[in-house]
Amino acid sequence: VQYSSTDKTEIEQWLVTSNHIASQDQDQAKADERLATLNSHLSTRTTLLGSKPSVADIALYARLAPMVKNWSDEQRTGEQGYHHIVRWLDFVQNAPLFGLKVRESEKINIDPEKVVFHPKPVDQKAEKERKKKEKALATAGADTAAAAGGTVTDAASKQTQTVAQAKPKKENKKDVGDKIADAVGAEAPTEKKQKKEKQPKPQKNAPAADKPLSPALIDLRVGHILKAINHPDADSLFVSTVDVGDPPGTDNTSEYEGKVVRTVCSGLNGLVPLEEMQGRKIVAVCNLKPVKMRGIQSAAMVLAASPRLAPGEEDKHAGPVELVNPPEGAQAGERVYFEGWEGEPEAQLNPKKKVWDYCQAGFLTTESREAAFDPKAVEQLKDGGKMEIAPLKTNGGICTVKSLTGAIIR
Asked: Which segments show compositional bias classed as Basic and acidic residues (predicted)?
């Protein structure tokens, strides 16, 4: 299974969640809320990632299985039960692709004859339409309420009642034409006159043409870590306060010691000593979509190198890992680019276009410990004209790592 950077982030979040979702230290209301959220998440998914199996499924299964084993039939499949959690657990413990080899005596016994309540399947199209109507009604209600000084519920109710009472009886086209003519003093339209052809409405905010795939679309900048701490709720994460040269008022920024900064979560805890994260320069990816990592929103990503896996080798996240270093004297916010691939980056990368996923496959370190980009490693660029390995640099020099050669950068 191939995992995108978004998948990897989600896996990391679920691994953290697995440590809390079955915790004995939480109150019952919080436990019920977390289980309800998980149940809803799984209502339209085969696995936690949707259709891809991952270590997150196994971690959460290990946490939940002992709990679900003691659930009553009502808790499992009652009208307020957790049907989807039970179905997912049964899939994980039996599906060969997970390879759990759970002994029969340890498996959760799922008896189809003991299903208490059969929920209707979720109709995705109908659900989307329902939410759309609710949003429209809420917006209309809020506007009416603001004007009348009432509540949204009152306004929506009154609006519906008024529309129902004021609905006119159906009039034929001729009567309508006569009324309009009387009102504006114009000649009433006759049946003989041809209807004016409707002109197609111009498309609003027409999307710009897609730019060719290029690492130049990725906003790489020199970042200055002003401070880094352990994530309060995730053992594998650091939370860093990073200056990447943003102007005041930039989205997803705050102020720290008089500087505009971003909060960045990185899965480097246990791989890079915390003291090495303090007050240092790094290379940051600044136009990925911000993601919330165990309750803290991360607005950038730190580039780091790790050894390339051998064919068939499992990634155990054991390291070593080395941060990519900008050249000496580089300043926070300075543009970082691959030589020969200069260009204007996107304001924010569209995850659906997979620019980061495709290009990142070519990020590597050379034998001289330089960070670089190999277009030959990117399937979508193999037919292009540029095939030389391009060093990662600023105007002041080339970015490097401490010792890893032939490594991947991500």
From this structure: 119-129, 168-178, 189-200
Mean pLDDT over 364-390 rounds to 92
Cis peptide before 320 (omega within 30 of 0): yes
> CA 374, CA 395: separation in Å to the nearest integer?
20
**Per-residue pLDDT for 143 more than 70?**
no
Q: How many other CB atoms are there within 10 angstroms of residue 403's CB atom?
A: 11
Show the CA angle centred on residue 79, arms to residues 77 and 80, nearest 5°.
90
For every residue of 204-246, DSSP letters joined together read: TTPPPPPPPP-GGGS-EEEEEEEEEEE-TT-TT-EEEEEE--P
Nearest to 47 by CA among 91, 112, 15, 10: 91
Residue 401 phi, psi dihedral angles, 5° rounding: -120, 170
In eight-state DSSP terms, residue 167 is P
DSSP strand pairing (291-293 vs 296-298)? antiparallel
CA distance 68 to 76: 8
Check for a shared fold between 7-106 and 215-409: no
> For the domain bounded by 7-106, which CATH number is listed?
1.20.1050.10
Mean residue pLDDT of the chain comes to: 83
Q: What is the pLDDT of residue 177?
A: 53
Task: Tell me the Ramachandran region of residue 348: left when phi exceeds 0, alpha when psi lies from -120 to 50, beta otherwise.
Answer: beta
* CATH class of the structural domain 215-409: mainly beta
Q: Tell me the C-alpha distance between 369 and 295, whole Å.
A: 36
Name the most confidently modeled range: 84-98, 180-194, 201-215: 84-98
- Cβ of 392: how many Cβ atoms within 10 Å? 26
The answer on pLDDT for 281 being more than 90 is yes
Task: Provide the residue ranges of all domains of the chain, joining segments of one domain with +.
Answer: 7-106, 215-409
Q: Which helix (H) or strand (E) holds 160?
A: helix 152-166
Backbone φ and ψ of 44, nearest 5°: -125, 20
Which of the four pLDDT bands, split at 50, 70 and 90, describes residue 390? Answer: very high
Output the pTM of the full model.
0.52
